[in-house]
Amino acid sequence: MAAGTVTDPAGSPGLRPVLALWEVTAAGVAIIVGAGVYVIIGEAAGEAGAAVWLSFLVAGALSGLTALSYAELASMFPRAGAAFEYTSRAFPPVVAFLAGWSMAVALVIAVAAVALGFGQYFGEFVDVDARIPAAALVLASIASTAAGVKESVRLGVALSVVEVGGLVFIAVVGAPSIGDVGLLEGATVGGVLSGAALVFFAYIGFEEVTTLAEETRDPSKTIPRALLLALGISTVVYTLTAIAAVSVIGPAELVAAERPLAEVARTVFSDGAGAALAVVAMVATASTALLALNSTSRILFGMARAGAIPRSAAAVSARTGVPIRAIVVSGVVGLVFVASGDLGLVAGATDALIYVVFVAVNLAAIVLRFRTPDAPRPFRAPLSVGKLPVTPVLAIAVALVFVGRLELVSMLIALGLAGAGLVLYTAYQRAGGGVAAAGS
């Protein structure tokens, strides 16, 4: 047994509740406002035209429907396993496993994807195989995450100051141009909704806030507040950025630009400003990789503690108070994906996996309203018809509509990844593993 760790969850020192509201909120903003917006805004403008800002606003509101379910369940069960924990309270163990597995797989692929993005931006300054700086970033993320949750979250927040600062910069420099382009020019309801389906991907990191529950002070109240605050702040930042970007260069050029926001900076200032935005994008990918790795390890920790995967992965460092083995496993798997150099269709499949998790979590919120209507809910999602909560129903409808827009091959790969997890789960249970009762 490694020094400073325990392998028996029953004897574990446990995760340390050290995070305050501002830290969890800032971490949420950092993980939501990821590097993807620096590219996806151009694709969304191709659908929504000058009204791309409205697509961001609509996507934020639609994300809020699922966020309300997460907030309610997190207030009831403030545990690190997040989606795994919530679904285990409503459904059989195998369903909970698939929810946790799907989110963990999606996040670890996301770590690799953004690390490769970091490597590509790094290549603009140094001619090197993108996999080398990508692997270096993953290794640095492992080291930072292993140092302690307060340290890793604060580093992620510090990086996000630059990350969000880049978007605020675009909003500020573009403000004088507002009015030069009609913000509803050529807009259609279908185009705005198609754009919203694209930029919805820029919001899906919000659920990672809930994986910090056991490391947050007064989590039943703090996590729901932090989750909704982070989503609200991110929506405002995204919307203002989109308004400024489309006002400066117009929707057509936004679509044509390889690096849309860098092109905005170049238009207002110079090529040097465009290069600076490339540096900001590198910082954004670094922040996203770090916090996504942090969240993945907490999901694995929660699953291991319940016996859904080997319990040794629930080992917590007595020195730093973090799930050290879950961190290492998450990072090593991320490195394997980085070595491939091209995630391609697998990366697209992560979206399908996350939508499946969102459906499962919203269903859990509905089931528990009927099964345990009188259970304490420090946060309660608004609007109900009798015992039926309305917002989870709407959230499920949104997820199903958006998953229907994914390519068939991506959905098939997602099904294959889920099937692989089910095979591993079955083999482990037959070999003597066992799922503990919910909440144990």
Question: What are the defining features of this structure?
Answer:
globular; disordered N terminus; two-stranded antiparallel sheet; mainly alpha; 2 strands; Amino acid/polyamine transporter I; about 450 residues; 15 helices
Shape: globular
Low-confidence stretches: 1-10, 436-440
CATH superfamily membership? Amino acid/polyamine transporter I
How many strands?
2
Mean pLDDT: 85
Quickly give the CATH architecture.
Up-down Bundle
List the strand order in the largest sheet: 1-2
How is the biggest beta sheet arranged?
2 strands, antiparallel
Rounded Rg: 21 Å
Distance between the termini: 24 Å
Return the string of H and E elements.
HHHHHHHHHHHHHEEHH
Tally of DSSP helical segments: 15
Number of domains: 1
As a percent range, the share of strand residues is: under 5%
Regarding CATH, which class?
Mainly Alpha
CATH topological fold name = Amino acid/polyamine transporter I
